[in-house]
């Protein structure tokens, strides 16, 4: 039924234009051609926070696009991109509705905390769909699931490399034999966003029966076409990365017929369907001259790890050939941590 509704919305968007009704959010009706800001409170009785959301309700009918930024509060380009879209997206030219989460993890943002929510030391992107009775992070995930994801026809979760991660720009979509139509629509979304590389997240039929854990995967489990963006590096609030995210989201909205089609970025990305990781066997200091986007051959030396006295503990050798999606770009490394994520190129 959801896919039928999505297809109907897209057909409506390309047909004769017509107005639409007000959009109900948080018991507030938002008039067509306007936008409204919300601070959704979240508390577990001990800790409290809020989720800042802007609803941009177009003048004309069309699909609902949910966008989350700042699920990890140290990833700044996505949050800055959300600010730009909030400022510049004109609801009078929009078909449909955008539910924009400005910063999903406010405690992580103000705490300058990579990955974790400092209120309970949990990773918001590992607890979806969340729980209405769980810890503060689990309740934040539940709120996003109920108020944003469940109301969306299409969904994008925007990330970047936080403080230790040197990351190359790419996007990704979910693919599963359990949901072939949803998978195909997600693929088309990813292709329309103008990135040079896109990753296919392979999801088994068994996996969709388990808790999603990830924000965008929760959308996919609900058969909502979903895409991830990864753009930004080392916790730097880069303007180029911010603008690239904004451009990708505008291009996606044009693809979905929510904005004029001239905004679609015409580019055929390289698809990465397999990934490999290199992990550390030691605590220590990581040395490498490799950067995100570098090509690495199987058997090539990636770097090495020493102790505090400069004694070499481990040489890091690639077991696969591929492109560096991200690499630890700062010296500290803990045993078991991922040093490098490689995209395997066919």
Automatic annotation (TrEMBL):
Pfam family of the protein (one): AstE_AspA_cat
The organism's superkingdom is given as Bacteria
Name the cofactor(s) required for activity, per the record: Zn(2+)
Gene Ontology MF annotations: hydrolase activity, acting on carbon-nitrogen (but not peptide) bonds, in linear amides; hydrolase activity, acting on ester bonds; metal ion binding
Q: Which UniProt key words apply to this protein?
A: Hydrolase, Metal-binding, Zinc
Where would one find the signal peptide in this protein? Answer: none
Domain Succinylglutamate desuccinylase/Aspartoacylase catalytic, first and last residues per copy = 62-236
Extract the Gene3D superfamilies matched here.
Zn peptidases
Name used for this protein in its record: Succinylglutamate desuccinylase
Task: State the organism of origin.
Answer: Maribacter flavus
